[in-house]
Amino acid sequence: MNEKDFAELAAGAALHSLSADDEQRYREALAAHPEWRARVEDDAATAALLADPVEPVAPPAGIRAALLAQIAATPQSGAVDAGATPAAIGASPAEATVAGGSEGDASPQRTPRRWSRTVFALAACLAVLVGVGIGAVALNQQLNPPASVVALQEIESAPDAEQATVALDDGGTATAHWSASTGKAVLVADGLPSPQEGKTYELWFVRGDAPVSAGVFDVDGGDATALLAGEMQAGDAIAVTVEQDGGSPTGQPTSDPVVVIPTA
Question: Which run of H or of E encompasses 162?
Fold first, then answer.
């Protein structure tokens, strides 16, 4: 037995789902390969986590669909042989032995147990998601990263990526990231105080004396990563003002900027 086959049995053993024959093969393999015990202990710990009672946590919207899409796009090993007959696929263990080998064969073929390991790993992932709410949020962010994060990655990967940082009055910083080749700009703020109730921050491209609205954004605990709406042009300054919820009703700033970052 190789280590991959043992891993399948170990997953089943941790979930107490092995047949009597597989249980015996599992114990014999473990006795012959004590170095594999670390895998057994890891699986046992994961199974214990699955058994622990936890408070239900509502997953973020769309996480199930995104997770299933990732699974569907991932090639699966141990697939059913395309030459297997429907009868053999749905047969009982005894019937499957006959279907898997020639008549009189004393060494019946064993069906790979890849799915047991896959199901065990998936169950472990779901346990973590349910047991730790922030884990679900983190997974959702990985599967569906915000547009601002995607844009920031594009900018940082561009050969002409540039950035500029200014200090804020309250001790924080604001950094503009931009790239002419992508035409995008992202503001990353640290230590930016939340606006008063009924107010929001609005972004602007300042072209000469003409400010152009680039959307509004929220602050979370002083941090913000905001993608400026519209295409940045050479020489634009990036500014932030405090406006009423939804942004300036006139399309022009109604207050002095709290952030101004020159890019030229």
Answer: strand 162-167
**Which CATH code for domain 152-261?**
2.60.40
Cα separations in angstroms, 22 against 4, 16, 103, 216, 256 = 14, 11, 23, 60, 74
Secondary structure in 3-state letters for 186-209:
EEEEECCCCCCCCEEEEEEEEECC
Do β-strands 259-261 and 162-167 pair in parallel, antiparallel, or remain unpaired? unpaired
243 DSSP assignment: E
- Spell out, as residue ranges, where the chain has pLDDT lower than 70: 47-143
Position 37 scores a pLDDT of 83
**Residues near 113 by beta carbon (within 8 Å), at least 6 away in sequence:** 5, 8, 9, 12, 78
Please answer whether residues 204 and 240 qualify as being in contact, where contact means their C-beta atoms are separated by less than 8 angstroms: yes
Q: Please check whether residue 214 is in contact with residue 232, taking contact to mean a CB–CB distance below 8 angstroms.
A: no
Q: Where in the chain is the domain with CATH 2.60.40?
A: 152-261
What is the percent of the chain where pLDDT is above 90? 40
Q: Parallel, antiparallel, or unpaired: how do β-strands 199-207 and 210-217 relate?
A: antiparallel
Tens digit of each residue's pLDDT (9 = 90 or more) over 42-81? 777 776 666 555 555 565 556 666 666 666 666 655 444 4
Structure token digits, residue 59:
């997953």
